[in-house]
Specification:
The complex is a heterodimer of chains A (114) and B (113).
Chain A lengths: L2 E4 L3 E5 L4 E3 L1 E4 L4 E8 L5 E7 L5 E3 L5 E5 L4 E6 L8 E9 L6 E3 L3 E6 L1
Parallel strand pairs in A: 2-12
Antiparallel strand pairs in A: 1-4, 3-9, 5-6, 5-10, 7-8, 8-9, 10-11, 10-12
Chain B lengths: L3 E4 L2 E4 L5 E7 L5 E7 L5 E8 L5 E2 L10 E5 L2 E6 L8 E8 L5 E3 L3 E5 L1
Parallel strand pairs in B: 2-11
Antiparallel strand pairs in B: 1-3, 3-8, 4-5, 4-9, 5-6, 7-8, 9-10, 9-11
Chain lengths: 114, 113
């Protein structure tokens, strides 16, 4: 079975500061990796994904993530956050050949302060 | 990306009743999924809804409690049956958009009293 661990449940950060959200996964087989964002009272929006190729993935809204196979991590970063980045962020994995079933981490709540 | 809508967006229900949630997508898709997000929690997959066949349920979820219909390639419903306060959650549908990617609907916020 696979699991996804988001190491920080909450991350307060000041506006224009950088932020990193940590995600580690456990799987004995190759996986696809995703970050989703959930703004207050909304559904999930896909930020970025890693399927193959370059381990540095760029997404929407200035976010990027780096896949590290040896450390089984997929950390999300943004160099300068805005107030509008206040949201919950979910890391998810999809085990290859598993019928596209996503397993989600527990989520990280980012609060951007002015 | 897909445009996905859900109805209702929110509801307050009495225990013992049932609620049917609709999910509509603007293009034909093979696979649709239903997830539950309990208060303050992450998302858990309830079942996979395939057109023309029975839904496939994950461990801990049963058809009697969460019957699912998938009459065509753009629509699915999830019913939450015989509700209790523990069923208070956000229910989200998603679609398999290809290239291993799922897109999500806006969710249905359910409160059971």
């Amino acid at each position: 079975a696979q699991s996804v661990t988001q190491l920080d449940s909450q991350v307060p950060v000041f506006e224009e500061a950088p932020v990193e959200l940590r995600c580690n996964y456990s799987s004995s087989v190759s996986v696809y990796l995703f970050w989703y964002v959930q703004y207050p009272n909304q559904g999930l929006q896909l930020l970025l994904k890693y399927l193959s190729g370059s381990t540095l993935v760029k997404g929407i809204n200035g976010f990027e993530a780096e896949f590290n196979k040896s450390q089984t991590s997929f950390h999300l970063r943004k160099p300068s956050v805005h107030i509008s980045d206040t949201a919950e962020y979910f890391c998810a994995v999809n085990r290859k050949a598993a019928g596209n079933k996503l397993t989600f981490g527990g989520g990280t709540r980012v609060l951007v302060k002015p | 990306s897909a445009v996905i809508s859900q109805k209702p967006s929110r509801d307050i229900c009495q225990r013992g009743t049932s609620l049917t949630i609709q999910c509509q997508v603007d293009s034909q898709v093979t696979m649709m999924f239903w997830y539950r997000q309990q208060p303050g929690q992450s998302l858990t997959l309830i079942a996979t809804a395939n057109q023309g066949s029975e839904a496939t349920y994950e461990s801990g979820f049963v058809i009697d409690k969460f019957p699912i219909s998938r009459p065509n390639l753009t629509f699915s419903t999830l019913t939450v049956s015989n509700m209790s306060p523990e069923d208070s959650s956000i229910y989200l549908c998603s679609v398999d958009w290809g290239r291993e990617t799922q897109y999500f609907g806006p969710g249905t916020r359910l409160l059971v009293l």
